[in-house]
Write a structure and sequence with these properties.
single chain, alpha+beta, 5 helices
Length: about 210
């Protein structure tokens, strides 16, 4: 579906950003045509379930078919992750856990400021693990057809990175195939602004966890 060697080269050539906290972004890492193919494949190959914790039109994956798992499997391999995480001056041990999940947002969807550290606690509690480090990767797969509409705010539905719960600093624009990643910490505050345009905004999200 995409070349892991090409993705690795693109990520290697990008500089890490440090405001408001360390992250790396590659705009349109996956080309529009491939991003649209993946977007449509995710719609049909995922068993979507409404997120009952919120009332803002967010669906999460309940089950994913084998083909979709194979698309994203290269980005969970040790060599790829170890080299990527090393760029953030961190070391990935041989024993780790890395999975991809998927979220589908519609008009009205939003997420309040949070730092995702609760994810580690939830996984440890459910699985009996003792993880204390987490690394996030995310790729946007919105409908590409909405970019023909000059009034569309697709880009503006992208995540905001913040210094705190209240101070936004920079936005990752929601464009097809845009990739970003960062090591999670108590400082990695971010939020998703309310989606005001009616389009399908699908994201692929990876969590890599280990014990340091």
């Amino acid at each position: 579906m995409f070349s892991i060697d090409k993705i690795t080269a693109l990520i290697t050539n990008e500089q890490i950003q440090f405001a408001p906290w360390p992250y790396l972004v590659v705009e349109k890492m996956i080309n529009n045509d491939t991003a649209l193919i993946i977007h449509n494949r995710l719609k049909t190959g995922v068993n979507w379930e409404l997120d009952s914790r919120v009332s803002s039109n967010i669906w999460l994956d309940k089950d994913v078919d084998k083909e979709i798992k194979m698309i994203f499997e290269p980005l969970t391999r040790y060599e790829f992750l170890a080299n990527l995480i090393k760029r953030f001056n961190m070391t990935l041990p041989k024993e780790f856990d890395s999975t991809w999940s998927f979220a589908w947002h519609r008009k009205g969807a939003k997420q309040i400021p949070h730092n995702d550290m609760h994810v580690i606690d939830n996984i440890n509690r459910k699985c009996g693990e003792n993880f204390n480090r987490m690394f996030t990767q995310q790729i946007y797969f919105p409908e590409t057809k909405c970019y023909a509409d000059n009034e569309c705010d697709c880009e503006e539905s992208g995540i905001w990175l913040s210094e705190s719960k209240k101070k936004r600093v920079t936005q990752i624009k929601c464009n097809p195939g845009t990739y970003f990643c960062y090591p999670n910490s108590e400082q990695t505050w971010h939020e998703v602004p309310e989606q005001t345009y009616d389009f399908d905004r699908i994201s692929a999200i990876s969590r890599t966890l280990w014990n340091e």
